[in-house]
Amino acid sequence: MKTIFKPRLSAANVSPRLLELATSGNLDAQAALGEIYFNDGRKENYAASYHWNGQAARQGDAASQARLAAIDHKGIGVEPDQQEALRWLRSAARKGHHGARQVIDRRNQDDGGPEQNTASASLCAALDPRERREGPVERKPAESLSNQALERVEDEQRETGRR
To answer: What is the rounded CA–CA span in Å between residue 110 and residue 82?
Structure first.
């Protein structure tokens, strides 16, 4: 079976066009930026991660909701807020996010029920098997993926304009 390596976008090569689209309210661009900054792992990008994941999460993006749950749970650049983390986690699980559903299922299987905070490591592991750690993660440049994301957003905008 052929394995396809798909490098992640990097905060170092965020396209100005992607930022422009995200600022104008484009959900896909906001979610892409949320993922980029979340995976970057640098303290100087924590606020951007929280901002863009929050923007996309409020628009209903399940992956952004799950990332926001991890941010709130671990206190990545913000004060930890377990209630808010659980709220976002449940929302992502309801939308079908696989990792969030696994964490909710594990929490519900615990003796303490869904309100007991026993799946702390599971949440981050479900989102990123390396868990969240401080410092940048070495990544290969992914300018072509950034361009692909922009093309997809622009294609969707053209399709929406035709309707």
So the answer is: 17
SS3 sequence, the chain? Answer: CCCCCCCCCCHHHCCHHHHHHHHCCCHHHHHHHHHHHHHHCCHHHHHHHHHHHHHHHHCCCHHHHHHHHHHHHHCCCCCCCHHHHHHHHHHHHHCCCHHHHHHHHHHHHCCCCCCCCCCHHHHHHHHCCCCCCCCCCCCCCCHHHHHHHHHHHHHHHHHHHHC
For residue 158, give the amino acid letter: R
pLDDT in tens, 38-80: 998 889 999 999 999 999 999 999 999 999 999 999 999 999 9
d(CA 86, CA 109): 16
CB distance 69 to 100 below 8 Å: yes
Average pLDDT, the chain: 77
